[in-house]
């Protein structure tokens, strides 16, 4: 009944003493509750957010539906362990293409502990987060029959430079994604996945409008996940490309100030994606 | 011919071995060129920017006009010293009210030296910059006859909390500014200074649109200066409230990425000012 998901591009995976997520066939995604304060903070966020009447519906749909917590046999068989029961964002898709972008130049906050701060600073200086305002945490793309699934190494992707990140965003909407630098991404899905009135760019702009106003939450170390599948696109099905926010272990009280760290990073991602929509050929 | 300006709310002031700026009666403001790389970076910025054809006129007007450099007898009489010759933003005003807001949660950048980084981190954690995405560096307000000029202590203002910063933004457009916490700012100039189709909020929104697009420069540790005077407002003169960007000693190449650090902080300032325009009474 419960199994390890076929598709996971970022976040904690099972193995090496760590628990990974599980899915069932009813469309739920079970995320192991981290045992430290990250677990309690994420649960507190989902609990508060799911009943917060200040969140408009057109924004709420960008968040996974929360179905409470559930004690499950852990992915490593080590016994019962609490999990967050969430909407499974990819289960309904055939061959989903997924990209996880961690938003914000800074992953730490005023109240953060000194050692967490120093670890973040180190990692931030190793990656292009500071320059970009975001970084790609992982992705997978279903290419054509010859190329198959392209799922580049996470650590390579995370340490990508500005230009490499731009290229990865192009490959995500191409039929010929490849690590081979001689193959130029064809961007043949750019207009349908990123563009259009319901495309990813349009959704990101709706999210941006909310972030220009909302002073309720600050989302540190949170990701925008982008999902699409070619089957739905080609068959003109209703389920087009979709964005969802995920990972809320470092959400803190906004205290009447907008989340300028998230907003700035989001604007940077928007700028790059609109560059691709405007000119897919370069 | 050259004199110490009557009005300066932030930046290096003459004294303690440091050179301060000078003004003359032809509307020029002379800023001493700092002897280290900050001086050469600021000069490089003004030189490049003043001839950069990619900058539209409606954005260029937010920057002081650059008139080259000039060797002047330093403010402390220590001999000839190079100065940047700039447009004097306040000289044409009678009793100007001035607010200097340093924009961006982060004042350092990837390439910054380790000791500069550590100094910034320390100061950033002492102030509300990280929370706010900006901080007020200094201000002065001409109140009514009883209150006179209100020019609170810089270090107190810089270390203001989120709520204190909101209050200071209210006092800036009030006829009764005071450090006395029992006196509620009347915000009687909010609608004419911040609001209106040519007010500060409208100007900040124009600037924001440019920052959502431009990937030429990243402006670290740069300030938005806001200036107005009651005489012009009351006489319905053309010269209304005005914003100018100042301090370019830490401007670096944008390398094809938007300046998400500046943009995020600018959006935070915009959000707070629009709160005051929408509801001046709270």
Describe the structure.
2 copies of one chain form a homodimer. Chain A is of the alpha+beta class. Chain A has 2 domains: 22-87, no CATH class; 97-278, Inositol polyphosphate kinase (D-amino Acid Aminotransferase, Chain A, domain 1). Chain A is 33% helix and 21% strand. The first copy, chain A, contains 10 helices and 11 strands. Chain A has helices at residues 37-50, 57-60, 114-126, 129-132, 154-158, 162-171, 190-194, 200-213, 230-234, 260-278, and strands spanning 22-23, 28-32, 66-73, 80-87, 97-103, 134-142, 149-150, 217-219, 222-228, 242-246, 251-253. In chain A, the strands form 3 sheets. Chain A has a 5-stranded antiparallel sheet with strand order 7-6-5-9-10. A 4-stranded antiparallel sheet of chain A has the order 1-2-4-3, with helices on one face. In chain A, strands 8-11 form a two-stranded antiparallel ribbon. In chain A, helix 8 packs antiparallel against helix 10. The A-B interface holds A 105-106, 109-110, 125, 130-133, 162-163, 166, 212-213, 215, 255-258, 260-261, 263-265, 267-268, 270-272 and B 105-106, 109-110, 125, 130-133, 162-163, 166, 212-213, 215, 255-258, 260-261, 263-265, 267-268, 270-272.
Give the gist of this structure.
Chain A is an alpha+beta fold.
